[in-house]
Amino acid sequence: MLLAAIATLLSLAAVGETKIAANEPGVAVDLELVLAVDVSGSMDLEEAQVQRAGYVEALMHPDFLAAIREGYHGRIAISYYEWGGTIATNSQLPWSVIETDDDAVGFAQLIQKRPFTSLRGTSLSTAIAYGSGLFDDNGYAGTRRVIDISGDGPNNYGAPVTPARDAATALGIVINGLAIMIRPSASHGPLDQYYGDCVIGGPGAFVISVQKPEDFATAIRRKLVLEVSGNQPPARLLPAASHADCMIGEKLRPGWEPYPELNR
């Protein structure tokens, strides 16, 4: 059942892809970047608006544009979608190149104009699987492929998150996380630690946390600059024996029963 669920998620990832002919060469870029943005029900309207404004501001910031220009090709390819328990498939923005200020403004405005839709549940596994399928035949040939995923809670819907993460990293995709900790919950522990242990993966993967609404724009900008440049933030030290329970979100859901595969 678990393997079937993961296979289903990977098939969902093909929805909304931009296809090109198999023999058509891709446009060379320094980075293929997918922004996977949490719009689950735990994100209230104010929080969602602040998050979106943070992405819009970060995409147009001089530091982000300078990082792009410093790359070998001086351009990146970028896409965007929103997720909760499922994918808001109509939220996906087509792959676009950001090379100039006008490119960045145009993409940011597409995000800004999107109507806000809230989705029940938090399925990081679905979000990762969907993002993983957006790279193939997208028309670009990047040195690196990154899924930038934001969220304010652990996986609590659909398949477990770690198999989806492992499937993505096996394809050479790096997953970075933005842990939204404005309303921390003692029930599941520090969200940035959960992201670090259970969500992110691949060479150089990292997590940045947001503690206050006013820090959204700065955190998102810092994250995007690091992703474009290929650098990492300083490591946050955690106790050596401290590890997040990657099934904590499922265990907190009323009526949850363990996946049979996990008991073998």
From TrEMBL:
InterPro entries from the UniProt entry: DUF1194, vWFA_dom_sf
CDD domains with a match to the protein in the record: vWFA (cd00198)
Protein name per UniProt: Uncharacterized protein DUF1194
One Pfam family of this chain: DUF1194
